Amino acid sequence: MRYSGFRVIKEALTGHKGWTPAWRDPEPKNEYDIVVVGGGGHGLATAYYLAKEFGHARIAVLEKGWIGGGNVGRNTTIIRSNYLLDGNEPFYEFSLKLWEGLEQDFNFNAMVSQRGILNLVHTDAQRDAARRRGNAMILNGSDAELLDTAGVRALYPFLNFSNARFPIKGGLLHRRGGTVRHDAVAWGYARGADQRGVDIIQNCEVTGFRIENGKILGVETSRGYIGAKKVGVAVAGSSSRVMEKAGMRLPIESHVLQAFVSEGLKPMIPGVITFGAGHFYCSQSDKGGLVFGGDIDMYNTYAQRGNLPVVEDVIESGVALIPALGRVRLLRGWGGVMDMSMDGSPFIDRTQVEGLYFNGGWCYGGFKATPASGWCFAHLLSTDRPHEVATAFRLDRFRSGRMIDEKGVGAQPNLH
DSSP states of 288-322 as a string? Predict the structure, then answer.
């Protein structure tokens, strides 16, 4: 079934009796050509592009829970390509271009809204850094505008411009950035992959890998053994636990990142704002709720829930930037488990086990990377060669000294 405006009208007039399930719920087969471990955005996108762009069949996606129950449904929905370093910016620009045509590509309304992202600057040094970042973005084919105080005031007059501690001296505007409905991305990729013959197997936890003579033969799961010629792992915050079953120790720590949404308000924030004097970012959903977040919780955890000190820190930053938030009620919060790499940048690479591939270490950047991550991981699984925009995302880059330290804070994941 293809979705369209005419289909919506027809179903409305006939009692909505013609809708079919978005994807099948098949039993796992004994063997597949490619098994993707992880039914989040990256895993589903990988399977989708393996089938659509690279022509593979006999693909399975194994998800220990339900589709949309992980980080893909637990984020602040932001997409952007405002990175600085050559190892990152081409990749995220590729991802943003895929976002721009995604809804037409997989025939699903993911509510892609390129409403713009404004990174505020509060010091002369921050302005210089924003100018450098903007130039790097433009050189890599993205868009960037450096605004002065008047330019920021014209867009967001309700910000606290008179704050003596955090004066707003301007901002870096990325107009093509914006937001996307996070769970719709999972549903759209799942539906698109299923239509191309991919088996999406929920409630199927990988409990081990069957490896002989340095080669992958398949995976042990809670629903039995499944053979595979190739296995790709994309499990976000569970990366260390899953890859440990294959005898690997990753340069990754798992931390929880909290996000929040307020009560519904009239249209207030037209785009996405980030605070330059504290870790706070905010946008407004189509329902009217303000969606915002900040720092990770600094302790290691695999739990999808956060701690109160970070709630307080995020709210303090929000009120410092937008005093009117002090009168807004907080509706709910949630947590996603982040796979924080040692330099703040991801991995898309082969492992030392033949036929076993890894995708992870996305830190804060996982959701916005979903299309490009899926495409590049599918390219690697299909060709055994990295995609041209993902050549720097190697697992051995710490041994070779080729880190991608986007923020310049060193090998300390809780600072990225």
Answer: SEEEEEEEEEEEE---S---HHHHHHHHHHHHHH-
Please give the model's pTM, rounded to 2 decimal places: 0.96
Q: What count of other Cβ atoms lies within 10 Å of the Cβ of residue 314?
A: 26
Reduced to 3 states (helix: H, G, I; strand: E, B; else coil), residue 181 is coil
**Left, alpha or beta for 146 (phi > 0: left; psi -120 to 50: alpha)?**
beta
Task: Using the structure block, give the residue that is written with the tokens 């433009």.
Answer: 138
**How do strand 178-179 and strand 78-79 relate by DSSP bridges?**
antiparallel
Contact 259, 364 (CB under 8 A): no
CB 370 within 8 Å of CB 46: no
pLDDT tens, 113-155?
A: 999 999 999 999 999 999 999 999 999 999 999 999 999 999 9
Handedness of CA 110, 375, 357, 82 (dihedral sign): negative
Angle subtended by helix axes 41-52 and 182-195, to nearest 10:
30
The contacts of residue 390 (CB under 8 Å, 6+ apart) are: 91, 348, 372, 376, 379, 380
Q: Is beta strand 199-201 parallel, antiparallel or unpaired with respect to 59-62?
A: parallel
Tokens at residue 93, please? 């620009």
364 Cβ neighbours under 8 A, 6+ residues apart: 257, 338, 416
| 129 burial level (CB within 10 Å; 0-12, 13-18, 19+) | middle
